[in-house]
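Protein fold
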Amino acid sequence: MMETDSSQTTSGSLNETQNDFGKMFIGGLSWQTAPETLKEYFGKYGDITEVMVMKDPSTRRSRGFGFITFADPNSVDKVLSNGPHELDGKKVDPKVAFPKRAHPKMVTRTKKIFVGGLSASTTLEDVKNYFQQYGLVSTVSYVC
């Protein structure tokens, strides 16, 4: 087991890319969530080989997201089909992680974007109206 709490790795070799099939991004973590807690919670879905809670290099404070890697890529499907997930009092958002240097055939296109830094007075309707200038907006939602 390898536990890392601050470094981000890049995938380069074929072996590393193959191992990424069991890798998940976990967003929405509580500032208090530790790698051990992450491993304990998601360990019920399969053997975890790596856990990372990403931290700011200067403050050492959690950045609110992390990664887990399962030994068996089928565990990823188990996590995705058994949500929603709550950890340390917060709803967390597990997703399939894609390597930074993914092979073009591994990259899928999504029509979903994240917009952060909005003022408290911004409504979902404001966001929809703004982005309609770029095309049809089918859904607008927000995460606390």
User: Anything to note?
Assistant: The radius of gyration is 17 Å. The longest strand covers residues 62-70.
